[in-house]
Structures are given as C-alpha cells and as structure tokens.
Amino acid sequence: MEAIITLNNIEKSFGEKQVLKKLNLSVSKGEIFGLLGPSGAGKTTIIKILTGQIKPTSGEATILGTNTRYINDKVYAKIGMVLDNSGLYSRLSCYDNLLMFSSIYGIDKKKIKEVLKKVELSEAIRKPVSKLSKGMVQRLVLARAIMHKPELLFLDEPTSGIDPATCLKIHQLLLELKESGTTIFLTTHNMEEASKLCDHIALLNEGEVVEYGEPDALCRKYNEDKKITILLKNGQLVTLQNGAASSKQIYEYFASEEVESIHSSEPNLETVFIALTGKELS
Ligand SMILES: Nc1ncnc2c1ncn2[C@@H]1O[C@H](COP(=O)(O)OP(=O)(O)OP(=O)(O)O)[C@@H](O)[C@H]1O
C-alpha cells in the first residue's frame, strides 16, 4: 500500500524537554489511522509536525510525498485540518465563514450549501458562530476542512467534549470520507472511537509508540487473561477464568438454576494500554 504519511526517527524537544523520541510510523493511502495516548503523550505535537506548523528537532516526516519541513500551498490545497483552534469568525454566519474560506482557497461557492447539508447545518446557515452549540461548531470546522475534498484529513480530538449524537454524525461522515478515498489521521483519547473507526492505531506513551496494529488484533494479542463473569440470581457476581478449569463450576451454577446472566469480558484498547504502560488512556 502506498504510504501517504511517514515519520522516520522523528524527535522533538522543547528546550530541555524531549517530547517525541525516535518515532517511526507510516499511514497508508485510504485508511483511517488513529493515534491514541493520554494527555501530554505528544499527539498534537505530531500533528503539528505533519502539518508543517512546527519542525522536528531531528528525523524526517513526509505527507503526500513532501517533506513536512517544506510544505507549500500546493500541498495545503490537498489537506484538511480539524484542530483545536477553530479559527472561525464568531460574529459571522456559518455561510459567511465558509465563503471567506472558499474565496481564499478558490473553491466554488456552490460547494458551501452542499457541505453545510452534509454536516447537517443547513438550518443554521445564517446563524452566527457565536450562537452555535459546541457540537455545531465542530461540524462547521469539519465542513470547512472537507469542502475542498482533501486527499488527507487531520483531526485532533474531533469529538472531545461533544455530545453522543454529534459524535455519531461525525463518525458517519468520517467513514463516508474514507469510502470516497480520503486518508484520515486522527488523535483521540477515546478507545471506542478508535476501535470503531480506525484501520490501524498507534498507542503513544511519553513520546514513544508502544504498540501499533489493527484495533481488534491488538485486543486479541493482549487477550491472555480471558474472564467470564456470572451474575447469580442472589445478586452475587462471580468472576472465573475462561477455560476448561472453570467448566465444572459453571456447570454446577447452571444445574442448580442459579444463573441470572453470563458474560465473557474481552480486553479493549484501554486494557491493552494499561497492560503496556500501567497507565490509563484517559
Ligand atoms: N510549544 C511548546 N513549548 C513547550 N512545551 C510544549 C509545547 N508544545 C507542547 N509541549 C509539551 O509537550 C508535551 C506533549 O504535548 P502535546 O500537546 O503534543 O500532547 P497531547 O498528547 O496532544 O496531549 P492532549 O491530549 O492533552 O492534547 C506536553 O508535555 C506539553 O506540555
């Protein structure tokens, strides 16, 4: 698969503080890639390097075949960004914000209504940004990032602090964008979001990639400690190892009709991260 993003031995220090340590990563064309890590791990720093906002201390990174130290307007025209600083004009309407953006980037203004419909903001088209909810602002930022049909989209915590219904809409949109061929690089604290959306993820801890792979495969890899939880009719919760050693006891609970419900507990990305670092993701 063609690599759209590469990071080769990337290091970044701010003064004495080393934030990224010899990072190597690659993102293939057309995939959704997720960078997961706790606060301060270095996720935003990586996005800033990849989008040319800051330079690495050492190592080389490329996006769309261009070294990120030398990104120019031609490359910017092919990427979209949903970053922390929304950069919207709060007194201007949704339409006028996108109109300004379209005139700067030479985008046909017919696209504005189209993209506002896509993010379900048609009814708010004339509303000033200051009157929008947080979820609506996030959808407007996303609309601005995708209206020029970027080949590569960067999203830094796209659903952080957003209500579940808006999260779902954003997830659907991202999957549609992937279907249409956009490569997506996102950072998140949210492992459910990563499991649902991402083809590959990297777990970042203190500036180092501690694991990389498909979310399901990573969960299976760390699934040595399979457990079965049984809720008995008397309200007692019993946790047993999932294996032959527990079969006699499970049989006895069933034979004496004591079982209310039975579940197997599979590890998720949070438990994978804890197994690797001893820390929680969020
Ligand atoms: N301009 C800067 N000057 C000094 N230190 C910085 C600068 N930018 C980031 N850092 C430090 O680098 C580390 C990584 O920050 P970064 O924002 O990349 O983390 P993050 O994983 O994105 O965290 P969060 O999830 O909280 O956004 C933090 O310790 C932060 O304080």
TrEMBL record:
Q: Which locations, inside or outside the cell, does it occupy?
A: Cell membrane
Q: Name one GO molecular function term.
A: ATP binding
Show the GO cellular component annotation of the record: plasma membrane
Q: Where is the ABC transporter domain?
A: 5-231
InterPro entries given for it?
Answer: AAA+_ATPase, ABC_transporter-like_ATP-bd, ABC_transporter_ATP-binding, P-loop_NTPase
The protein's name: ABC transporter ATP-binding protein
Show the SUPFAM superfamilies listed in the entry.
Answer: P-loop containing nucleoside triphosphate hydrolases (SSF52540)
Gene3D superfamilies (UniProt xref)? P-loop containing nucleotide triphosphate hydrolases
Q: Which key words are in the record?
A: ATP-binding, Cell membrane, Membrane, Nucleotide-binding, Translocase, Transport
Name the CDD domains on file.
ABC_DR_subfamily_A (cd03230)
